[in-house]
Amino acid sequence: MTRIHMRRLAVARTGAVLLAFPVAAMAEDRLPILAEDCTAPCAGYEVTAELQNDWVFAADPSLLKSDELEPTITVDLFLAPTDNLRFVASIITEQVVEPEAGENAVFQGIGTYLAELYTAVATGPATIRAGKFDTIFSLASEVAPGINATELVSDIDADERLGAEVVLDFGGLGMEQVLAATAFTTDRSVLGNSLFTRRGRTRLSDGGAGNTDGLSSFSMTLDGCRGSEPIDCYLEGDFGYRLGIRYQAAGAQSGEDTEDSPGDEVGYLAAATTSLELDEMTLRLLGETAYLRHFDGGSDDALLLTGSAALELEPVTYVASYTQQLNLVAGEPDRREHLADFEAIYEPREGTSLEGWEFAAAYTVARDADETAHIFSVRAVFNFDGDAELGSR
Known about the structure:
By secondary structure, the protein is an all-beta fold.
């Protein structure tokens, strides 16, 4: 059975489509945010305020047409008692309950939740973090630019997990390398709920990959970059790559689909990026492929192919992205899901009156075997941050 479950575009098992595109959540952090912005002991913050409108102006069937206006506010906080110790939190306010298919919405279903809360310790070339955080897997969902470019590929992410992670920096083959290993489980604690609009806590009976007792799931990724640190490779590096493997133990069988027998998910991923300087322009390319056996702990497998090209001609970046998901359905014909996205992103230069703002417009086509949606999206983003030293060492 086809299953498009993007952060705002989902084809439910009943055949209805929930069409509403939220602003993508912050990319997974491999190191504590703002770790080098102040001298310990210190504290800091970063706030991202976004306002986005998604207009489904054409759809098949036509009842899926809708118009939504949604805010997203992300507040990242850190406290650094010493140079090697960080306490990090990420609080997000956004739509947590989606409207019915084809329903218009203005600031509807907004809730506030704790997306990440962890402690990070740096010791030599290694960084260790423990708590609640987004695990590392898809490179495309982390760095591909645009409003809706990652809406399909981000479905393979394992976000808001409880666990521990070790990140090791080293050099080799003329590149900077980073190896990350993570053990985790799904967050079923009180931290998984939200204020104002309640999204509810995940329970063991909900099933799904990784939703089991104990740290029964793990992932490992290897990043390499020539020309910059791996964490900045997409924007600053000449060439970069990621190889990843992930295992998520199968959860309980969901009561919503008794015919879908659970299985342990095993995922494999390979991605690469490169940048080309063309006179006064920069062309950034990204490609990724991922294969997941027993996708999301179900009986079906999935193969995802993602490509992105971004042409930066300051102050505007033009982006074209495409993702195809091939669902290898057990006992039924295979099905495909497609997402094509074309965007223009305007980021005012430093020193202008609009410094700190970003404006973007996107045309997106999402399609599977039964439904097609054409979406026009616009987004305005404002970022600001700061830090304060708490005393002399």
